[in-house]
Structures are given as structure tokens and as C-alpha cells.
Amino acid sequence: MKISGHILTPDGFVHGELAMHAGRIQRIEGTPVGVDDVRGSAERIVLPGFIDIHVHGGGGHDVMEGGDAARHVSTLHARHGTTALLATTMTAPTSDLSVAMGALGGVCRARPKGAARVLGVHLEGPYINPGKLGAQPNYARPAALDELRMLHALAPIRLVTLAPEILGKPECIDALRAEGFQVQIGHTLGTYEDGVAALRRGAGGFTHLFNAMTGLHHREPGMVGAALAHAQYAEIIPDLVHVHPGAIRVALRAIPCLFCVTDSTAATGMPDGDYMLGRHKVSKCMGGVRLPDGTLAGSTLTMDQALRNLVFEIGLPLDDAARRVSTHAANYLGQGERGRLAPGAWADLVVLDRQLDLQSVLVEGEVI
To answer: Fewer CB under 10 Å: which end of the chain, C or N?
Structure first.
């Protein structure tokens, strides 16, 4: 199979042709073209498929439901250009997590037809600060390696969000990293110093930067200050509701590999109404998702809209925006065969028009 157009390679855009075989990219041939010329042309735009490492739900289904919820969720997001994702859990009792993880194991092992690849699980909590729950149910508890190992045996945990100040000892991060878990800082009341110490111990990034963490003050820089001063990677939710565009621009200048996530919920792709987020009932209204008290509770963002927001609202060049919805997240997870269009990589790609509306999506060579 072949696709032609303006193709974003690791070295920049080329105008040419991409050939695929057996789910992987065989070759890319073309003539280099400047990024400013791409959207002015009538040619199709071919970008790496989007990678979203923070997905709670979509299409009326929540990952914590168990059953075949993850299949529905990954299918909904594939239709919006996400070719790989991490199914993200909520803070919950061990019994609830076991049900969800038991169901996720199968979808992680075998990608359902028409769906995004579920690379594994993002365990958001339960090892977070009960004073900074955000929309998380109040089942926060200290980190327990035995519990993590048990859950990991059910489905592969790729990422754990935790609050470093509740670990007791910073060495706990060493133990988690030694077990192969990527550690991310979030839902935290920690100080700037807590954040710096966690990064030095091997924490890799920050969960939904600015949200559910101590903010920046010029005499108390907080966890946001630690991220802006020291992080290489961090998530951000670019729905323009969770974070002001000005704050997004600050983070873009400070964090080299800032990347986008949706933090999407069951309400994504659905009409206004009530939905479940873990054990919480949430309401979708006017594009937002909230708890009864008004607290933001995830989003209805999709990654194709995230790309458009970065380009049209934040003002990023298309090649930079594309890396922030695919390549940086792939690199963060050590997924060298995804998030880029290059010979040998998985044929995960999106085809867009000049308005950046999706024309087609391919996951491992399958046309969605």
C-alpha cells in the first residue's frame, strides 16, 4: 500500500510517497519541502499517528468498568487519529483495580480490529496525596510494591502517577524504577524541593502539568516550578479549559519535550449528560466534564483537536505540534518504532487536509 502527499519524516517534510508492507513502513521517497509551504498546498498531509498516554474513556465507556470497555475506548480514539495509547485507571480500592486490570490484559496482548494499540496501563494513583485528589475518588494510600506487582501481572503497567511527598523516603522511586515502572509526579501537594528530589531519583515527568499540583509562586516555586525549571518531559491537556493558552506557551518555552494528552473520559464523543469516571458520576456540558461541585473531571478532548489547538490557537508550526502529539510521548515510553514515519517503524499514521481535519487513519497498516 502507498500514500502520497506532504509526509513528515524525522528530518522534516518531504513531498513524495510512503510505501507500507506487513504493517510497517518500507520506504519514503520525496523532495524536501518547507513547513510553511505544507498547509498552503492542496496536497494531503501525512503525520505520525497520535500517541495518548492518559486515556480514561470514550464513547460512553470507562476503563474502570472492565469487560470490553477498553475495546470501545480504543476504537473511539482510533477514529480521531490516536494509534497508540495507555489505558488510564482511577484511584480505587484494590478490588476495583483488579477487575479493570484483568480486563485490560487481553486488549494489551492483542489489538482489536479497528482500534488503537493499547501499549499498557497508566496507573493514575492510588499513591497520590489525599489533599490534592482533583477528580480522583478518595481511595489514596501509600505506595505498595506488592500491590503493584500483583496488578502488573494482570496487565502491563507502563506508567505510575504518584505524589512523591507521601512516599516517606525518596528511595521508593528507586525501587519502582528498578521494577521497570516509569514514574510520573502528579496529584501532589509537594514542594519544589520534593519535585527536584523525585526527578533526581528517576521520576520521568509530570501528570497534566499545572493541574492538581502546587502552583508557582516566586518565593515558593512549588511542583510547577520544579517542572518548569528541571523537566525534560511533562504531560499537558491542551483543551484550552484545563490550562490557559498563556500558561501552555510558558511550558512550551521551559520544557523541551512537553507533550499532549487528552485525559479523556467516557463522555468523549458523546452528547451532554451524565457518565461514570471510576466511582464518580460526572456531567458533560458545553464541552467540559465536571463533578457535581464544579471540579474539572477529565476532558472530552481528542488528539486531532489537540493538534488543531496547538497550531491554530497556540501558534506552533505544524512539525513541532505533530511531535507533541506523537513523537515525544513515544520517546518517553521508549517506543522507538512508533511516533515517527521512517522505514522499519510501524505504519501508524494520519492523513489530514489543509485544515488539519482527518481524512484517514492507519494503525499498524490497517485502515481505520
So the answer is: N
